[in-house]
Amino acid sequence: MSDERRSPVGLIAGAGRLPVLVARGMRDAGLDVCCVGLGQAWDDELPALCTHFRAAGVFRIGRWIRLLRAWRVDRAVMVGRVEKARMHDPFRLFRQIPDWRAVQLWYRRLRHDRRNAALLAAVADELERSGVRLVDSTMYIPDHLATEGVLTTVAPGAMQRADIAFGWPLLRQIVELDVGQSIAVRERDTIAVEAVEGTDRMIERAGTLCRAKGWTLLKTAKADHDMRADVPTVGVQTIERLHATGASALALGVGRVIMLDRPDVIATANRLGIAIVGVA
């Protein structure tokens, strides 16, 4: 067994189910999971899956590093939801008090560019300067990535197939511009484009704008997306929201989108009549 295989692995965890799946994957690989939980937002199941678990503020990067180094971690995965809208809150410095390391990072790297790619690169560089390498966030959950073809017993209808063919080239252009990772399409017309509000709110907006049922959500990451963080995800709640807002199909980029608890996602889609298609 290699030294990297034996050494503990770090997990920087935001909200949602994804950190739980990653922690399980790490444990299944025989690794000690050393977790920094961000913003008191982690899943209740997460701490019990970890060898070490401590809380830290979202903007307390210095504390993340001190904890990881104390646990002798030299590589880490960063996953989970952190609301990007917090970065645009005028009172963020009071509500989420940063430590000095975060202040310096903000001043040097993020004052003029708050895109996800810039944020990830800045955090990854700061961690690496302290001896912690950020690694591909999907490496411990390969079975939860979208695969090619129709993934459900429910197949897309003719309109949904046409909408996917129409919308996919548009989505590829949008993700390359770092605008968002999802669009909603019906009858070859773009209903909504995801921005800083996130997929869930974009789905609600699409449902409000498109009263007719049968629209399709398309979701992927750009071709050179840094898989160390901000990998697009869908889960059971995504499927339920799509059903509630009148959607009938979901198209996902192959190997570019994480399906949280993939068997449950597919089962829920089959039950609610939502077709899921993996697009290469």
Task: Give a topology summary.
Layout: H1 3-6, E1 9-13, H2 18-28, E2 33-38, E3 52-56, H3 61-70, E4 75-79, H4 92-95, H5 100-110, H6 116-129, E5 133-134, E6 149-150, H7 158-176, E7 182-186, E8 189-193, H8 199-209, E9 215-219, E10 233-234, H9 236-244, E11 247-253, E12 258-259, H10 262-272, E13 275-279
Parallel strand pairs: 1-2, 1-4, 2-3, 4-5, 9-11, 10-12, 11-13
Antiparallel strand pairs: 6-13, 7-8, 7-9
Helix pairs in contact: 8-9, 9-10
Description of the molecule:
The protein is an alpha/beta fold and 280 residues long. It has 2 domains: 3-134, Rossmann fold; 142-279, LpxI C-terminal catalytic domain (Cytidine Deaminase, domain 2). 37% of the residues lie in helices and 20% in strands. The chain has helices spanning 3-6, 18-28, 61-70, 92-95, 100-110, 116-129, 158-176, 199-209, 236-244, 262-272; strands at residues 9-13, 33-38, 52-56, 75-79, 133-134, 149-150, 182-186, 189-193, 215-219, 233-234, 247-253, 258-259, 275-279. The strands form 3 sheets. It has a 6-stranded mixed β-sheet with strand order 6-13-11-9-7-8, with helices on both faces. A 5-stranded parallel β-sheet has the order 3-2-1-4-5, sandwiched between helices. A hairpin with a 2-residue loop joins β7 and β8. α8 packs parallel to α9 (236-244) and α9 (236-244) packs parallel to α10. The chain is globular and about 55 Å long. The two termini are 35 Å apart. Residues 91-95 have low confidence and may be disordered.
